[in-house]
Amino acid sequence: MRHASHYTVVGNHLLQHRELSATAIGVAAHIQSLPDGAPIGVKALTARFPEGEIRIGSALRELERHGYLQRRRERLQTGRVVTRTYSYNRPEAAPDEPPLPPPPPQPPLEPEPEPEPGLEPQSGPGLESEPGPDLEPGPQPEPVAPAEVAGPGPHPGALELLAGLRRHDPRLLLSERDVRRLAPDASAWLERGIAPDAVARAVSADLPDQMRNPAAVVAYRLTRLLPPRLPPAPVAPPVRDAEAPHPLQNCDGCDRAFRAPYPRRCRDCPPADPGADAA
Which end of the chain is more exposed for a tag (fewer CB within 10 A), N or C? Predict the structure, then answer.
């Protein structure tokens, strides 16, 4: 049954594009269904779809790279410069960029002055130089390709976490491509100290009854439910050193060594007779 109204014709060159991602194809089809002048920026599309700004921005760059979108900087009558985004149903319909202005002409070179008569060098045996030996060029060094710096990969447990979500709910059966695409979002949870089981429960709890795209639901929950980082742990108070022991003292009565804050008799000797000291 054909639609009589409220429909959009989208070419197979877009829907079956072999280099565009599924997100880019879906965003392009949505943009083509909008009326002229509708906002199609990253923030407007993020408010419409569950995907985040990073995935929406990546999809728009794909469409721009393949000619379905074009961004041009234009100056308004007020003098303000804005960036406008144009959508094209077919890539070949995009207008060519305006040619760059030609470079400024180079100033004419001044003619070299002619030598005055009588000052021309005369050829003679003393003015001729002997040709030197021909030097063979040495081997040219081969260009060295710059070493590729590999970016940080996902957390080791992120792939296993996403692949095991179907144990919590059979509907969360993700393809290998979706697992690798969502691995950075799952790594953000694990890097913040969240246990894999806690991440799986947060993603699989209270799922809707009708779920057509489980990967989109997982991506939405990994982004929207990401908990903040834990604040730094409080610094423990410094442990006080134990009280220093008393110095050694020699008993005045038996000359035995013992520890005391000041010189005196030990506890086994009787106290000193004050009258004996006076005598």
Answer: N
Q: What is the CA radius of gyration of the chain?
A: 42
> Positive or negative, the Cα torsion across 145, 149, 154, 160?
positive
Residue 57 is predicted with a pLDDT of 87
Among residues 144, 165, 155, the alpha carbon closest in space to that of 185 is found at 155
Helix (H/G/I), strand (E/B), else coil: 109: coil
Residue 29, SS3 per DSSP: helix
Contact 17, 25 (CB under 8 A): yes
Match 């604040």 to its residue by tokens. 231
Q: What's this model's pTM, rounded to 2 decimal places?
A: 0.34
**pLDDT level of residue 199 (50, 70, 90 thresholds):** very high
Start-to-end CA distance of the chain, whole Å, equals 134
- Give CA–CA dist 161/180, Å, rounded: 11
d(CA 59, CA 21): 7
Return the percentage of the chain with pLDDT > 90, whole number: 16
Return the CATH architecture of domain 12-93: Orthogonal Bundle (1.10)
DSSP for 11-41, written as a single string: -HHHHT-SSS-HHHHHHHHHHHTSPTT---S
User: Which contacts of 152-159 are long-range, i.e. CB under 8 A and separated by 24 or more positions?
Assistant: 154/183, 154/184, 154/186, 154/187, 155/183, 155/186, 155/187, 155/190, 155/191, 157/190, 157/196, 158/183, 158/184, 158/186, 158/187, 158/190, 159/183
The pLDDT score that the predictor gives to residue 218 is 92
Record the tokens describing residue 9, joined without a space: 């014709």
The encoded tokens of residue 221 equal 């929950």
Hunting for tokens 């054909």 — which residue is that?
2
Closest alpha carbon to 261 in 243, 275, 246: 246
DSSP-assigned beta bridge partners for residue 250: 257
CA dihedral 33, 178, 219, 202 (to 10 degrees): 150
